[in-house]
Design a protein that fits this description.
Blueprint lengths: L2 H22 L2 H4 L5 H24 L3 H24 L9 H25 L2
């Protein structure tokens, strides 16, 4: 297993944990997404499929795997930008565990994104 695979797994795990909390916090209301919980869950079907498929490709270091790692790394940065910079809600995503997940996801996302860019530039 290569180092990118390890960071990808960490980043994807933190993203999934954040999305579990997002359902609890009714993120569709915060971001004004249509379809309530049904739309939110349906939106996550392709996201989860891509996360799991990406792991197979990343472990083989294919070009599509590196692109999916880059995208997932960016996905690890987005919760921080949304919940800590652009759509701050004091009562949402502000528990200690929420902050640990968001900041750890930011760090793992930056590493996954950067290492993917590095490997793609070879």
């Amino acid at each position: 297993m290569n180092i990118l695979t390890l960071f990808y797994i960490l980043n994807a795990t933190l993203l999934i944990l954040h999305e579990i909390e997002s359902a609890y916090e009714k993120e569709w209301e915060i971001l004004k997404l249509p379809g309530k919980i049904t739309g939110f869950l349906l939106l996550h079907i392709p996201i989860l499929f891509i996360l799991f498929y990406g792991l197979l490709e990343i472990d083989r270091l294919t070009d599509i795997g590196l692109i999916l790692a880059l995208t997932t790394g960016l996905g690890g940065i987005i919760p921080f930008l949304i919940h800590k910079k652009f759509v701050k809600r004091r009562e949402k995503f502000n528990l200690l565990i929420s902050n640990i997940i968001i900041y750890a996801n930011l760090l793992s996302g930056i590493i996954t994104f950067s290492y993917s860019v590095y490997l793609l530039s070879y």
